[in-house]
Predict the structure.
Amino acid sequence: MELFDKLSQGETLIESAILVQIKFSSRSSSSHSGQEQQDINEFTELVRSAGAHTSTLVTGSRASPDSRYFVGTGKADEIKTAVKLHDADVVIFDHSLSPAQERNLEGLLECRVLDRTALILDIFAQRAQSHEGKLQVELAQLKHMSTRLVRGWTHLERQKGGIGMRGPGETQLETDRRLLSIRIKQINKRLDKVNKQREQGRQQRQKTEIPTVSLVGYTNAGKSTLFNKITGSQVYAADQLFATLDPTLRRVNLPDQQAIVLADTVGFVRDLPHDLVAAFRATLQETIEADLILHVIDSSDEQRDFYREQVNNVIHELGAEDVPQIEVMNKIDLTEQSVHIEDAHNGEPARIWLSSLTGEGLTELYDLLAQQFADQVFKGELRLHPALARLRSFFYENDAVIDEKISDKGEYLMNICIQKRLMDSVLEKEELNLEQLL
């Protein structure tokens, strides 16, 4: 009756979860103690982001995973006792489980069992808002589910004969796999269409010669907050993992009339499921095609070096390791650091320390971005004959005019700032060269 009352009132039911994290001997016990605690903190935060309540955390250590239960029989019995004690709805492992291990554990524990991949997929499913994002999440979920269908259909593993029981000649499991395969093909076709539309947008930006800057970083590093500060947008930002999922692009005007397109992308996380990386490749294509990557790092986090490495691993997996990068050391309001810039040296990227929350360091970031693209910009005074009114209109349409005067001869003296490639293309179209206008 209590459950019915909650549902009728529209309340969200919070599931009780038993968390399981096992340490394997391949990791050093002493040197990684701080990292292990950080992994536990991130794991519990993921569970909270999914909307579950942590009843208890079961930890342990093994030399290697058990083929049947992933954990040993003794640890499995300990988890079973915890499930009964806390009346848990679900057991969540901070590891990737095989379909057989999930099936065996569910039979033993008599409740649902999820692994890390399924947990992250569930969070993504909650966060996706756009049509593209929902399709990408569904694709990843279906691929993950396709190897686990046997769990739900063991009672229909083979259709029985007899009057009224003769079926189409295939098992229920085979029917579901066929339907899943059809749905996956449909989603892939739709995503191909979306990808073509995004590619058209990128080609259009390339025609106008506007550089693209992609924001990347570990989840909850402050990317969306920084994006909102720079662009004046209202992208959802919160102190939780994967607060935003769908990519957002905005045009930003830098000092000296320069313009860039800033792209906010999905946050990365440790052991990001490969199916998700593959499914979100169209979205993350903005990172691959970017002219510059702003790698946002939480400078107040003790594990920031580890998170930096995890993000760079995903960037490498995407094939974007050759894209120039600037590290943005965010959240200095939580540290004793002040705003400053560290120049690139020994192959390391340039680094700027700022606070996206308070806005400290944003002016310096604008100047750093302007400096990054300075060699791609023409800035100077042009002398246009009145007959070149079409060229004058072009400069105004592209916000390239800083100021303008008219000479005694009636010529337009225009002080402009414009992308060099855009300047070259319009001069070629008008069959002019730059020397004629100086």
The domain at 209-374 is CATH 3.40.50.300 (Rossmann fold). Residues 1-11, 27-31, 151-162 have pLDDT under 50 and may be disordered.
